[in-house]
Amino acid sequence: MESIYRYTSVYYVAVFALILTSVQYTNGALLSKETRKLINRANRNGPYLGLVIPNLFEMNPLLNSSDYTPVDPVIDISGRRFRFGTIGDQPVISVMTGLGMINAGITTQLLLSLFEVEGVIHYGIAGNANPSLNIGDVAIPQYWAHTALWNWQRYGQGTDNELALEANGDYTREIGYLKFANYTSNVTGSDSSYDNLLNNIWYQPEEVFPVDGTPEQREHAFWVPVDPFYYEVAKTLKDLTLERCVNSTTCLSTTPKVYTVQRGTSASIYLDNAAYRSFIYNKFNVSPVDMESAAVALISLQQRVPYIAIRALSDLAGGGSADSNEADTFISLAADNSIIALLAFVKQLSAIKKISSI
Ligand SMILES: *[C@@H]1O[C@H](CO)[C@@H](O)[C@H](O)[C@H]1NC(C)=O
Ligand SMILES: *[C@@H]1O[C@H](CO)[C@@H](O)[C@H](O)[C@H]1NC(C)=O
Ligand SMILES: *[C@@H]1O[C@H](CO)[C@@H](O)[C@H](O)[C@H]1NC(C)=O
Ligand SMILES: *[C@@H]1O[C@H](CO)[C@@H](O)[C@H](O)[C@H]1NC(C)=O
């Protein structure tokens, strides 16, 4: 009996070792020899513009566009697919990130670590917080910030109290805060004593570790500027003709346009709340609100690669626009408009590069 057990356990150890080896092999294969070869070959055709795209519905219309020519093969790395192509004679790498800040950050880091990339262009759809813009418009902000790194303040404390760990330089009261009690509803005008146990959240800058800084020595960044030259190029798109109609019967009530705007914000939060929308508009002068752009901005900042984001507005975050229900109805029109603006931007950029290289 005992010897059978012993035999069995030897067998299990062997199987376990086999599993371990194959797991190690899988993990170690982030860059197999074959993948490294493909990357080296691809990089000989660079430098590329990196097109970082949140979702398939924003990427597929680009891949299908007559202005885009694919170049084989694709390279799959860490669950991402890097696709190669040209827009005019500008080589581009397109990659889909998936939803949210972590996906956007990881994907951008992979792109910039592995490939010869001269600049990053992020595009897609976004919610709108700016009442002077409309659904279907394309917004190209000069600054992006991640607005969900918070210090959530203890109840009973306020603006005059130091935040937890503020003295260490970990947190700051410089950027400002949201006060929950300000959004109490159904209180009568005369009652000014209402309060909220959720108290205040204070916005915080990101810790960043630039490629040319000292490793492990943090710097801080809240408003991340896009590349100033790219921003100037974006201003030339203001008269671009965008799509106005979903089909023969459903059209926007205004003619959509491309706008360069001051600011956009991102967080891994789907914003569909009018009170918060107007808070961040009033506090930060934000136009597009999305879930990825600031992550792409923060990685590009740290890698010192020029960056810009082009976001078409698909809905008034929280509702209430003249065009009825928004996100569902106009999502594909907004995606198309973001691609029209992207294509025009890339063409304009390569035309300027050509002139300046003569
Ligand atoms: C792109 O083209 C393919 C094949 O022609 C089609 O199946 C797909 O639906 C198209 N996608 C978009 C978003 O137009
Ligand atoms: C809260 O509301 C008061 C009164 O309207 C306003 O003065 C204050 O700026 C608001 N505070 C915040 C953090 O939004
Ligand atoms: C709060 O007020 C709004 C608007 O006046 C009303 O529609 C809603 O039913 C009220 N909610 C509660 C919980 O009383
Ligand atoms: C046009 O699009 C709208 C919104 O998606 C839809 O409700 C309507 O049925 C469409 N009309 C036609 C003619 O396809």
TrEMBL record:
The keyword Transmembrane applies. Keywords: Membrane, Transmembrane, Transmembrane helix. GO terms for molecular function: catalytic activity. The chain crosses the membrane at residues 12-31. The keyword Zinc-finger does not apply. Residues 50-347 form the Nucleoside phosphorylase domain. CDD domains: MTAN. GO terms for biological process: nucleoside metabolic process. This is Nucleoside phosphorylase.
